[in-house]
């Protein structure tokens, strides 16, 4: 493939970026999905202001829970989604602004491989046609040259030339993913977004596809953004990792440093969820309270503030018992969850008729949370006040009241990205400022060595 120069991506321009130099620079990137429904609600803030770089020749992993915005970020980088705001710089050009021929030309440089080989290939096209399509669209070479090129590509990804006239359904999952990779390589891109490329495959097949991707990277000097759920795969193949939560990158840095010595509270939580192979290990899992907030209505301060186990407390409550503090946080989460619950039509009718809906009575919640605790008078007074607001139907006021009284910088201000550790690593957390203990000093668990290679 490296000898093929007939109209594919411009090699001369590519030479400008050397291995290890920045290939893609992302500045304050946002991708929002507007609500097109009749009622025109708030947009989904799928990617909500991320900054990072991808270096030529590296594999950057992108991890995080389902729905945190990984695919949207990947799709925005290849211009399958239009950014709402921010920049994606390639060789000094902001590709979010390209259109027409410029965009078409740029697309040669950047490709995407999708998760599901079952549905990402058009079943009515032959393998040859599928792999050839990008060459046809970009009018690369003569028809005969394109055919020849497809044959080369099939061989590059470990398929056979005679597969040219077969159809996708005649292939296994692993082979179909090879077809998707061949298609992505057709225009000689230098950057490929791999969106969960092995998640749908059997474990034995996964290793083969990962090896293929590794070989292709070496052979063609490719740069990857590797989106994945499986942290053991990420640990194994990525040079650096970005940890995403609710549309934000919480921590980014070299893989080993990030896994061995996580700096951000969310990275701690994510690593603690990895099953422990050693049954004698006494490592406790961090159980996060509640569910991630809706990306339509993310927290005002730190994105992780509603669930963070080491959230900074306001000074006057710094010394109250952990149990009491946790009960306050859970009460606040209950109120947030209530405001998110979509009432059914039946509930709405009951609500309009002034009858009780299926939401639990707030006094029961209060008793359950605080009944057995030794609650300081001042805390009790504020909790009771908030509970009365809820009982009178004013949930918003109760939430605002509790935020005012028990909130801290984590609830009100978005943290900066702080440089942490002695490697090039950054973390989005207020605890990295001098006046607070670092997360690592507050957490008691040690995750060093999680998923370490032997
Ligand atoms: N086309 C769309 N229109 C509206 N909302 C969308 C659209 N695509 C994704 N979303 C929403 O954007 C948020 C981020 O989704 P995204 O698929 O990027 O996350 P993800 O981390 O890749 O999840 P997964 O791991 O499950 O694929 C989610 O709340 C999702 O429901």
Automatic annotation (TrEMBL):
Domain ABC transporter: start-end pairs: 24-271
Stretches that traverse the bilayer: none
Annotated SUPFAM superfamilies: P-loop containing nucleoside triphosphate hydrolases
Keyword Cell inner membrane: no
InterPro entries: AAA+_ATPase, ABC_transp_ATP-bind, ABC_transporter-like_ATP-bd, ABC_transporter-like_CS, Oligopep_ABC_C, P-loop_NTPase
Signal peptide residue numbers: none
GO molecular function: ATP binding; ATP hydrolysis activity
PROSITE patterns in the cross-refs: ABC_TRANSPORTER_1, ABC_TRANSPORTER_2
Record Pfam families: ABC_tran, oligo_HPY
Keywords: ATP-binding, Nucleotide-binding, Transport
GO biological process, one term: transmembrane transport
Family annotation (PANTHER family): D,D-DIPEPTIDE TRANSPORT ATP-BINDING PROTEIN DDPF-RELATED (PTHR43776:SF7), TRANSPORT ATP-BINDING PROTEIN (PTHR43776)
Family: Belongs to the ABC transporter superfamily.
NCBIfam families: oligo_HPY
Descriptive protein name: Peptide/nickel transport system ATP-binding protein
Species this chain originates from: Halogranum gelatinilyticum
Taxonomic lineage of the native organism: Archaea, Methanobacteriati, Methanobacteriota, Stenosarchaea group, Halobacteria
């Amino acid at each position: 493939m490296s000898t093929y120069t007939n109209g594919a991506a411009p090699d001369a321009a590519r030479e400008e970026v050397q291995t290890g130099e920045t290939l893609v620079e992302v500045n304050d990137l946002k991708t929002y999905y507007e609500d097109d429904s009749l009622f025109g609600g708030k947009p989904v803030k799928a990617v909500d202001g991320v900054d990072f770089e991808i270096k030529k020749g590296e594999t950057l992993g992108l991890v995080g829970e389902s729905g945190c915005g990984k695919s949207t970020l990947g799709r925005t980088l290849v211009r399958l989604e239009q950014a709402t705001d921010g920049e994606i710089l390639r060789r000094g050009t902001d590709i979010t602004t390209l259109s027409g021929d410029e965009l078409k030309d740029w697309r040669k440089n950047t490709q995407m491989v999708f998760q599901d080989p079952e549905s990402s290939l058009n079943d009515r096209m032959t393998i040859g046609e599928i792999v050839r399509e990008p060459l046809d669209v970009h009018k690369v070479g003569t028809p005969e040259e394109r055919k020849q090129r497809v044959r080369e590509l099939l061989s590059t990804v470990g398929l056979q030339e005679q597969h040219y006239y077969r159809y996708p359904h005649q292939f296994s999952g692993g082979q179909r993913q090879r077809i998707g990779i061949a298609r992505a390589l057709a225009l000689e891109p230098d950057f490929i977004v791999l969106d969960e490329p092995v998640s749908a495959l059997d474990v034995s097949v996964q290793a083969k596809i990962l090896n293929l991707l590794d070989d292709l990277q070496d052979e063609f000097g490719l740069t990857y953004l590797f989106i994945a759920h499986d942290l053991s795969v990420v640990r194994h193949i990525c040079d650096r990792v970005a940890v995403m939560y609710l549309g934000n990158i919480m921590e980014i840095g070299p893989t080993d440093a990030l896994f061995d010595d996580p700096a951000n509270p969310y990275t701690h939580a994510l690593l603690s969820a990895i099953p422990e192979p050693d049954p004698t290990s006494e490592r406790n899992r961090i159980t996060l309270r509640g569910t991630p907030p809706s990306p339509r209505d993310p927290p005002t301060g730190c994105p992780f503030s509603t669930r963070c186990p080491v959230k900074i407390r306001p000074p006057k409550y710094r010394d109250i018992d952990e149990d009491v503090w946790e009960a306050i946080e859970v009460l606040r989460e209950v109120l947030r969850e209530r405001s998110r619950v979509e009432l059914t039509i039946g509930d709405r009718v009951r609500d309009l008729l002034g009858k009780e809906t299926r939401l639990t009575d707030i006094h029961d919640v209060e008793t359950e949370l605080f009944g057995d605790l030794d609650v300081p008078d001042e805390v009790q007074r504020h909790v009771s006040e908030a509970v009365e607001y809820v009982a009178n139907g004013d949930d918003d006021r109760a939430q605002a009241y509790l935020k005012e009284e028990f909130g801290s910088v984590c609830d009100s201000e978005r943290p900066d990205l702080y440089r942490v550790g002695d490697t090039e690593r950054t973390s989005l957390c207020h605890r990295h400022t001098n006046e607070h203990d670092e997360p690592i000093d507050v957490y008691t668990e040690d995750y060093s060595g999680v998923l370490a290679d032997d």
